[in-house]
């Protein structure tokens, strides 16, 4: 450990293992073309969404005349109309419930499972891991009808909770795999030390694992929340009352009715997009850290 | 506007009744015509899932259908859920299979509802029909289409036919006349195509089954209803050249770029965009069903979003072969209402259906208020059509009346073709249009599927040929 | 391995054995919520479809046992063959195109000092945008009458032409995905020991050689995981195709999952659809096994 830290100190502008950087002179030389390519890539990524942002401020005639240019005035009428007609107040509330419910539950379920798979030497644990991989390869359209029958008999259709349980089940395998590799990095000595102090497994999970793996849980919560926000297939099938519909189905229905009115559709799309973008921008550093230091590295 | 002879006729009901030699209103009808609540015995909440889109249309349904019913039956509360068409079908089927779902089942089309009936998920409506005398209120041919083995399993939701909508302002400006036969139609198409105006607008983006609307037009107006009747009753095969040539003719229209500007656009331009172009004169005509009437208005006029000074009208589809009569209207049923066998509130659901189909004046008022959407096959005379009805919508009613009485009617695919054959009609057409199947191979596959299904008996009772007296 | 001899005497200790047993039980108890949910929602209903896959079930009503008829039909069905081909095309494109863009973006990000966060955020946004929104935007941009093509002077209907429909949808999926990979790869690249680059430079390696011999091996575990998930996701590809083309026109953008959906809900062949879905799961399992086998055989070395 000490060796590594000292070695890093020798690298200019250290801190994190921050990059394969050449000397300052070389960097200056590469500067411009690199940035040009980066800007082109960035425009490619968000250009289409910028066009949508522009269209949200335009009426149909303006869009028809020039679909990609910036708006000439900042008219908010599309937003107010779309908000009202799409009933976004209701659907957004429902989606927030779905996101929180599925994120919290998945963290608990996947957290327990990941702790077990990483620190408890469960007999047959490897088989479970393989099963989780294979299970996530199942096409979901395959079991919608039997699941619907089951949910009907359990009175879980047309219920946000019923939908959340489905999200728990479908998202937990991925979350478990991610958290497992995260928790594997927690040194066994920590766990052993806590155990010698007489802590139970549940206490270890809560007091040792949770604080150490906090970024991993954050990442899982964000991803699962994002999936719940964007999901539409299960939602359309299992939620029927208009008052319980989530935002994705609201957007789809809205788009269907206003398919020629790109201004309105764009405004509605922004209602879906802006909350997640804001959330991810504010948490992106931690999110990415969690994703990479956890499962993907 | 019509002679006494015509005005006496019962719209949409004559042919079936006379053709099958059934007596018209019997004793039963006397006790059925009562007002609200007379036979009401259901209470509680009735769930209904339906595919009405658009705020205005939903509001009308809430106020003038559901609201009016709840007023007449205060003990019953309706709970309506709106879906878009594709979703509705999948969700209803999934729910029915799970023995749950809405109390009133809005089925997609006659033949597909038949599949549900065979799966025993729909309640037998025959007792209700007897109790309230539905056979005297609804057109016999439409009820027959929903009867298997003597059991009535659904009620017809809307009378369907195909027509040719046209931009009236454009036609007047260009001096175009309404074509009545193939050569006039093709001359018009060539001329408008030459001027950069799309002759026929059509799209299957929003409704994948839209292809069957076109096949319905070409088989009825080229092959003719007599040939179709023979094919559907198994006397001739769909491999007959008269059907193959109809497919080839449609394909040739696509190849000339006459339909939506090309096959690729038919597959990718949303129907609303085609509608907008229809309104501003870039599309000359749209071959569509009468249901399009409730939408077409939004593309025309200064006050609508459309912002143009144009107007629309419709004409009968021209005869595409000399042997076929003109005007000719293909007939069928768009959608159905049935009662879920797993529903807990079947009597109340039946009360709704009885009110919906039984209250003639309310039904006629709905037909007047909203063009086409509420055209249920009930019996009424021309003079009963409310005067404030849009004349274009009223003309559909009187023209269909005339068609039925003179025998000039044909058959739409989504009512008279069995379910798998019906699906093949539009899915296979995509393959024809993309050159994966020849018209002959397409008809061969259709004939095979049809023969198989006919053997299994998944075929509705046909509306017979011949004029009524 | 080295600790084995030290542990061996402890095994005899009965208290220790009991503790291990107890921990195994606790371990399964901790797995229980996950497994119970999985059985309830995924495995149980899937087993029901295993039964249906041996029947002529229409999707509603009773089902008749037909043995392996659905599976033998699947082998000869030209629509299945076409859909499998599309899955393969999809797999190759989805694996390579976002990977190339992602590596390029990550590598360039790794070269610069300013605006890293900003670029990272911009690359990332399409990934967090809902598929329904992305599909709507691109449908507008690909529209022959009002999209980008219209501005560029072509009225090609990208989604309506059978020869371009599959590639057009795949393009949209690649577009929303590559930025995510760029961000992941970028973070992984930051973890590569800077001294390795210095050593490579001393050896006279040029920038491409540095990338090949230092960067790529340095992020290999990340790449391995991404490839694994890509395999699973390409064989499951559904949502964008379903939203944008429904697999059409004329099956030209159908993959097995959309074909399965069509069979189940439009063609009244739910039994056949179940057989297709299960076969696809088996195919995925085999592909995953082959991948793992190759990896263990030293592909990774």
Automatic annotation (TrEMBL), chain A:
Keywords: Cell membrane, Membrane, Transmembrane, Transmembrane helix, Transport. Gene3D superfamilies: MetI-like. GO terms for biological process: transmembrane transport. Its main location: membrane. Residues 1-25 are annotated as: Disordered. It is found in: Cell membrane. Residues 12-22 have a biased composition (Low complexity). Pfam families: BPD_transp_1. Residues 92-283 form the ABC transmembrane type-1 domain. GO terms for cellular component: plasma membrane. InterPro entries: MetI-like (IPR000515), MetI-like_sf (IPR035906). It is a multi-pass membrane protein. The chain crosses the membrane at residues 35-57, 95-117, 129-148, 160-179, 208-229, 262-283. Belongs to the binding-protein-dependent transport system permease family. This is Sugar ABC transporter permease. It comes from Rugosimonospora africana.
TrEMBL record, chain B:
The keyword Nucleotide-binding does not apply. Residues 1-30 form the signal peptide. InterPro entries: Bact_solute-bd_prot1, SBP, TAT_signal. Keywords: Signal, Transport. It is found in: Cell envelope. It comes from the Bacteria. Pfam families: SBP_bac_1. The keyword Signal applies. GO terms for cellular component: cell envelope. PROSITE patterns: TAT (PS51318). Gene3D superfamilies: Periplasmic binding protein-like II (3.40.190.10). This is ABC transporter substrate-binding protein.
Automatic annotation (TrEMBL), chain C:
It is found in: Cell membrane. It comes from the Bacteria. Its main location: membrane. Belongs to the binding-protein-dependent transport system permease family. One of its GO terms (cellular component) is plasma membrane. CDD domains: TM_PBP2. Keywords: Cell membrane, Membrane, Transmembrane, Transmembrane helix, Transport. It comes from Rugosimonospora africana. Gene3D superfamilies: MetI-like (1.10.3720.10). This is Sugar-binding protein. Coiled coil: none annotated. Residues 84-291 form the ABC transmembrane type-1 domain. It is a multi-pass membrane protein. Pfam families: BPD_transp_1. The chain crosses the membrane at residues 25-48, 88-109, 121-141, 175-197, 218-235, 270-294. GO terms for biological process: transmembrane transport.
